[in-house]
Amino acid sequence: MRVSFLVPAYNEAATIGELLDRVAALDLDKQVVVVDDGSTDGTAEIAEGRGALVLRQANRGKGAAVRAGIPHVDGDIVVIQDADLEYDPVDVPALIDPIVRGVADVVFGSRLSGGRPQRAYLFWHLVGNKFLSLLTSVLFNTTISDMETGYKAFRTEVLRSLDLKEDDFAIEPEITGKVCRRHLRVYELPIAYYGRTYAEGKKITWRDGLKAAWVLVRVRLTG
Ligand SMILES: Nc1nc2c(ncn2[C@@H]2O[C@H](COP(=O)(O)OP(=O)(O)O)[C@@H](O)[C@H]2O)c(=O)[nH]1
Ligand SMILES: [Mg+2]
């Protein structure tokens, strides 16, 4: 099966080269689509230098970057791959395995189910993620432990069928809500998480957390 790495990137010149080298090192039939979301630090040029298919757009958010890339993927499987090395591509062969074996439509790489290296930091983020995942499980009668994870893998036609609308980090609760509402076969497995601090460039805030809760409820009620 061919795997498309869909990389939304905004000013990630410090990490995208290393990230793409790690993807290149994987023994997979793969495509790399980088959606440069208005970077001003040369991120797009670095990605082009690594041979990736690079799409450029004005800065509109992670969601808009992911949505812009979906029509360009040519793989059987799509993995959303953040460009900041918080998620390590060496976890991808395991992440996609349930899809390759035909038992899953979507796989979430969980940072909250243990068993893999996790940076110990940002307690309130952990509380926020656990609350949002509990809310997801209650709203959709499921057992998702990390709905905000950036490591999500899909059968390509499933991702295309979700008809995503959100532009910013709300793409994560929108994706989660829609795959649960459609009773798709969602699997989870533990992944490593090499979290970065705000000083190192992290951008997600508590406002994104509040919006995530609203989007989950909205998708539950209206699809
Ligand atoms: N923050 C932010 N990230 C974007 C944007 N567009 C694309 N991205 C990319 O989305 C991915 C996740 O963003 P990040 O800030 O690491 O979010 P976090 O890991 O959830 O805190 C990274 O690869 C970013 O480069 C944007 O407008 N803002
Ligand atoms: Mg990140």
Write the CATH homologous superfamily of the domain at 3-120 and 147-168 and 182-197: Spore Coat Polysaccharide Biosynthesis Protein SpsA, Chain A
Find the count of extended strands (DSSP E, 2+ residues): 7
Portion in strands: 15-25%
Number of helices: 8
Strand order of the largest sheet: 3-2-1-4-6-5-7
How would you summarize the topology of this molecule?
Elements: E1 3-9, H1 16-24, E2 30-37, H2 43-49, E3 53-57, H3 62-69, E4 77-80, H4 92-100, E5 106-110, H5 123-140, E6 152-155, H6 156-161, H7 171-181, E7 186-190, H8 206-222
Parallel strand pairs: 1-2, 1-4, 2-3, 5-7
Antiparallel strand pairs: 4-6, 5-6
Helix pairs in contact: 5-8, 7-8
In short:
By secondary structure, the protein is an alpha/beta fold.
Your description of this structure?
By secondary structure, the protein is of the alpha/beta class. The chain has a domain at 3-120 and 147-168 and 182-197: Spore Coat Polysaccharide Biosynthesis Protein SpsA, Chain A (Alpha-Beta Complex). The chain is 38% helix and 17% strand. It contains eight helices and seven strands. Helix 7 (171-181) runs parallel beside helix 8 (206-222). The model has no long low-confidence stretch (mean pLDDT 95). The structure holds guanosine-5'-diphosphate and magnesium ion. Guanosine-5'-diphosphate (GDP) is lined by residues 8-10, 12, 37, 59, 61-62, 65, 82-84, 86, 150, 202-204.
